[in-house]
Amino acid sequence: MDQKPWLTVAEAGSEFTIELGGPWTVDFSFDLRNLISQVPDIKDKAVKINAASIKALDSMGTWFIYKITKPLVHQKLSFSITGFSMAQKVLLQKMSRYDVPHVARPTEESAIVRRLRALYSLHISVCSGYGRLLSFIGVVLERAFLTLLHPSRMRLTSLSVQIEKTGFNALFIVGMMTFLIGAVIVNQGAVQLRQFGAEIFAVDLLAVSMLREMAIILTAIMVAGRSGSAFTAEIGSMKVQEEVDAMQTMGLNPIDVLVLPRMMALIIAVPLLTFFADIMGLLGGALMAWNMLDISFAGFFSRLHEIITLNMVLVGLIKAPIFGAIIAINGCFEGLSVSGSSESVGINTTRSVVQSIFIIIVLDAIFAVFFTAIDFV
Amino acid sequence: MEKETHKSDLAIQVRGLVTAFGPNTIHDHLDLDVKKGEIVGLVGGSGTGKSVLLKAIIGLIKPVEGRIHVLGRELSEISDGEQKLFRRKWGVLFQDGALFSSLTVAENIQAPIRENFDFSQEILDEISFLKLGFAGLQPEVAHKYPSELSGGMRKRAGLARALALDPELLFLDEPTAGLDPIGAASFDTLTKNLQNALGLTVFLVTHDLDTLNTICDRVAVLNKGKVVVSGALEEVKNFDNPWVQEYFNGPRGRAVQHKPYQTPAEI
Predict the structure, then answer these.
(1) CATH number attached to the domain at B37-62+78-258
(2) CATH number for the domain formed by residue range(s) A6-98
(3) Smaller CB count within 10 Å for chain A: N or C?
């Protein structure tokens, strides 16, 4: 097989002979292209093509032979081919049907113009994206309100499945994470506070930061990464498979079927997860305090009892259902805006997670300022 | 010795194939032969495992039992290094085209060529536009993305990609389903022309009675996990099996008259 294709040209009187041999296959496209360019311009001569020595022939080989014969046909020269079966001659003739001008790829703009255009369309898509998200929130709230008026419409099976997937199955990872963070806060806090002989205040530091901010933020980020992305990918691939369209033709509202159960599930699951995260964070801190500061569990919890107020816990928990709703709505919105290709499922999933986390952090800042302003501490 | 020479005439040889998904047995000791240079059509009711058989032959599904020889080699015995060389002798068209959605049609066709050869862009273009033409697509389609194409066009683009490396053996999963009758007929003609001229072997899963009538040298019928009959269409039509009788002699089967393939020059 390593033998190469060859082509010889001989001129005798008024007759021109082109002999072809070796493997005329796609593997040797490069050589074949060079070979056929060696055929000179032939004028007013009868041409004989002898293909008897061709070892292997495929459609690419036939194509290149067609390119040899093309100028001959064009000049209406008489030519004959030997060594070809009838069927191969037919295929050779057919090649003219596939001889179409190549269409060039649409040329790309210069790098600067492309960047500017990308920046412009990014700006547009971000603005219109948030606009469409807002109107989507409106539609979802409308449907949610209608469902509240007719609670029997609530899809309880779907809701409980979603609570299990987004809440129960997340318990381990959320608990693990806040337990470790709680331990780290006490550890680092104690190192700093030791300089002032105020190590015991590491417990205050833990209680305030964990209950007010850390537990809810960590939980929300984990849920956005775990469940928000899953919502987008699930609904997005349903969109690609036209399942959402099918649903609409049956008179099912995709918002009722897909969005509401997920939103309700997160509104229920995120506060529960946050409360669990609070406890695990405090336990992590207690363990570190006992290990590093020699504070007994009894001492730790009596100190906690002194400093924790109900409001402190509520500040964290009030935010939880709102963050849950935002994650669910945003995840479902991105899923429903998937278009056509599987590539866009990936793009939208990324955007769903990034956007959810961004919105959560912005909202958290607003909440912090707001709670301080109304003296809710 | 005699057995060996006989074997070399076979493009595909399946012996005692058993495949199963969990407790569901799909194929129960199935035997199938496809000779070189032959067009074989596989028919069977929905859910009888036609696509599964195709996937088992191309090595995407591991059989529970049985041997599958393709072009005289057993797949499981071929080393990973050899696989690539071996696999380029086949082209596969999946049911929905299975184009890579992040590449344009031209890039899809060029993907297997790039993987095997170091050709310049001009040669790649030359090959891909020829194969686009083979599949009956306009050259304008070359730079579109699969999501911009209709279902039938995606299938044709998939065919163009399957033909990219000029395979000896072509596997087609329902090649004409979803094509308009003109497109389906031109597909039949192309397949027959390639087979006649280049000795292509084609194994196709189909429900298209026209395709079976006009281009298939042999028809194999899959029923209850086995190939119950395989042979020329006329033989199969007369085979005594209720399903086969209903399939070929039902209202649709009778509507398609047996028209032997015309010489390609006339079409």
Answers:
(1) 3.40.50.300
(2) 3.30.750.24
(3) N
